[in-house]
Structures are given as C-alpha cells and as structure tokens.
C-alpha cells in the first residue's frame, strides 16, 4: 500500500494544481455567501461534487429547500453514473475500498483512472485508492484555504467559477495528446453540440451522455482495436 503512494502522487500533480485553485474558488464563494470555513471543510469532505458544490453556494444563498438541492445536484452530477458503470468490475475487486472509490469518482479522478499506467511491482488497486484519496484531500485543502483567505483579504469573486471549466479543458487536451485514437472525443463533442443545439444549455447534458454511451457501446469492438494499435 505504501509503495503505491509515490507513483500515485506523481500522477495526481496536475489535479493538485487544479484542485487547489478550484477548491479555493469554492471556498471564497462559500465565504462570500456568509458561511464560515468549517462549512467549507465539511462540504468538501462529505459532498465532494465539484460543479455540484458551486451550484450549492447559489442554492444556499437563495435558501432553497432540501428537495430542490437534491434534485438539482442529481441533474447536474448525473454524469457520474456513467463513470461508475465503466469501473463496476474494477471497484468490486477492491473489497471495502470500493465504497470510497464510488464516492470519490469525480471527473478528474475518473480521467486519471482511465489512463492509469501502474509501474512494475505496484498494486494497481492500491494506486487507484491513493489517487482517489489524494485528489479528495487536495479539494478539501483548497476549499478551506479559500474560505479562510476569503474572510481575511478583500477578494472579488466575479467569474471565479470559470475555474472548473478551465480545468475540464486542460484534462480534455491532456487526454487528446496522450492517445492516438480520437474517435471517442469526436463522438463526445458531436453529441454534446447536437444536444446543446436541440435542447439548449439547461437540458443537454443527460441526453448527450446517453447518446455517447450508446455510440461507444455500439463501436466498442472497433474502438478496442484502435486503442490497441
């Protein structure tokens, strides 16, 4: 288990850089909404939903009901359901750790696990667990730092929520550069663009994800061959 820490940390350095800043942005926004730093810690510890936490700030500020919060969070983060489907067997083999792996499967952690190359002599399950745990700790640290500094220093948080979009863009570029097969990327962009055009920005995510899953499943054999080249 300990041997897997160093390669896991090396793999998560890009997420460390992103999560400290994005978590910081969340902490600042939460503090601006009138919540003390302990709330940033517990929100990131127990919710850990990235864009869902950004949405949470607005809902808390508007004094939305728990039902509204639950429904909006489900709609925004329903993409995580599709992430988990691709790791059903992998997580099942990790024993009791699978429950934490399911909970901690964010966009960035999913990206790392999909492209994970385990060094010789390192337990893959241990490395996956460390990656998930480290990413979570980065997010918590950034959130608390942002909440503390946001309450001490004057800080204009206008536009700070764009940090999440910026990190998604960086991850996409890294995955594009790390693989020769770009068919899944084109399918994803095409499905998202068409869904956005037909359904608008408020309703396009879930239909786009469903379309992507169907297309990837239909082209599974061909894509497996392309990736293996």
SSE diagram, text form:
Blueprint: H1 5-32, H2 37-46, H3 51-61, H4 66-77, H5 79-85, H6 88-92, H7 97-103, H8 107-114, H9 124-152, H10 162-178, H11 183-199, H12 205-218, H13 220-228
Helix pairs in contact: 1-9, 2-9, 3-4, 8-9, 11-12
Output the helix-strand order.
HHHHHHHHHHHHH
SS summary, helix count: 13
Strand content: under 5%
Report the strand count: 0
Which overall shape is indicated by the principal axes computed on the Cα atoms?
globular
- What is the mean pLDDT? 82
Query: Terminal Cα separation, in Å?
Result: 32 Å
- Rg over CA atoms, rounded to whole Å, is 18 Å
What does this structure look like?
- By secondary structure, the chain is an all-alpha fold.
- The protein is built from 13 helices and no strands.
- It has helices spanning 5-32, 37-46, 51-61, 66-77, 79-85, 88-92, 97-103, 107-114, 124-152, 162-178, 183-199, 205-218, 220-228.
- The longest helix is centred in the middle third of the chain and has 29 residues, at 124-152.
- The model has no long low-confidence stretch (mean pLDDT 82).
Keywords:
229 residues; mainly alpha; 13 helices; 0% strand
In short:
The protein is mainly α. Helix content is 76%, strand content 0%.
């Amino acid at each position: 288990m300990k041997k897997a820490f160093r390669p896991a940390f090396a793999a998560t350095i890009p997420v460390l850089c992103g999560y400290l800043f994005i978590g910081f942005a969340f902490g600042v926004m939460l503090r601006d909404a009138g919540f003390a730093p302990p709330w940033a810690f517990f929100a990131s510890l127990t919710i850990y939903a990235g864009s869902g936490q950004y949405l949470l700030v607005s809902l808390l500020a508007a004094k939305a009901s728990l039902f509204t919060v639950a429904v909006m969070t489900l709609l925004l983060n329903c993409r995580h359901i599709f992430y988990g489907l691709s790791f059903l067997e992998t997580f099942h083999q990790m024993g009791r750790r699978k429950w934490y792996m399911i909970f901690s499967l964010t966009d960035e952690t999913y990206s790392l696990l999909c492209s994970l190359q385990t060094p010789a002599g390192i337990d893959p399950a241990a490395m996956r667990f460390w990656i998930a745990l480290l990413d979570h700790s980065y997010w918590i640290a950034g959130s608390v730092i942002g909440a503390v500094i946001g309450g001490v220093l004057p800080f204009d948080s206008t536009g700070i929520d764009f940090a999440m979009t910026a990190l998604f863009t960086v991850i996409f570029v890294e995955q594009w550069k790390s693989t020769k097969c770009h068919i899944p990327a084109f399918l994803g962009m095409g499905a998202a663009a068409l869904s956005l055009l037909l359904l608008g920005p408020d309703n396009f995510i879930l239909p786009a994800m469903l379309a992507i899953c169907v297309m990837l499943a239909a082209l599974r054999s061909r894509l497996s061959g392309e990736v293996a080249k």
